[in-house]
Amino acid sequence: MKALAGFGAGFVFGIGLLLGGMTDPARVLGFLDVFGHWDPTLAFVMAGAVAVSAIGYRLVLARSRPWLAPTFHLPTARDLDRRLVAGAAIFGVGWGLAGYCPGPAIVSAAAGDPGVLLLLACMVLGWGVAERMPARPAPVREAAQ
């Protein structure tokens, strides 16, 4: 049942990406070109996604437990570290160069475009490298005396 729910959620997400124009690299690059011919349409797509997500989180977290799991699995880390900042920067540069972020790239792969398939291969390689990078332990803070 969890796999079917995941497939359904991914399918709806993919349709939303297609309808919102997120799978069109020219539109994405136009959105990122704030000093040139800026295309603001993706700002509305993102604002709509944030609004739906905010409402969804409020509704879901009001429940005592999820439908398909015994407990919620929410992130607990709130620290900004070099790894997070470097990863965000690399993500942003990749998004700007390719015109795709991971979700739209996966949806666009269905068309079989060799450039998108190469991008996905590089993303998988990057994930593998990141998984093998050692995480630095958080610094230990001395108690104030």
Structural overview:
- By secondary structure, this protein is mainly alpha-helical.
- The chain contains six helices and no strands.
- Helix 5 (102-108) crosses helix 6 (114-132).
- The longest helix has 21 residues, at 41-61.
- The radius of gyration is 19 Å and the shape is globular.
- It starts with a helix and ends in a 13-residue tail after the last helix.
Kindly summarize this structure in a few lines.
It is built from 6 helices and no strands. It has helices at 2-20, 25-32, 41-61, 82-98, 102-108, 114-132. Helix 5 (102-108) packs across helix 6 (114-132).
Total of DSSP H or I helical runs spanning 4+ residues: 6
Overall radius of gyration: 19 Å
Distance between the termini: 54 Å
Largest sheet: none
Computed structural class:
mainly alpha
Helix coverage percent:
55-70%
Total number of β-strand segments?
0
Q: What percentage of the residues does DSSP assign to strands (E)?
A: under 5%
Low-confidence stretches: none
**Helices and strands, in N-to-C order?**
HHHHHH
> What value does the average pLDDT take?
85
- Based on CA inertia axes, which overall geometry fits? globular
Task: Indicate the topology.
Layout: H1 2-20, H2 25-32, H3 41-61, H4 82-98, H5 102-108, H6 114-132
Which terms summarize this structure?
145 residues; mainly alpha; 6 helices
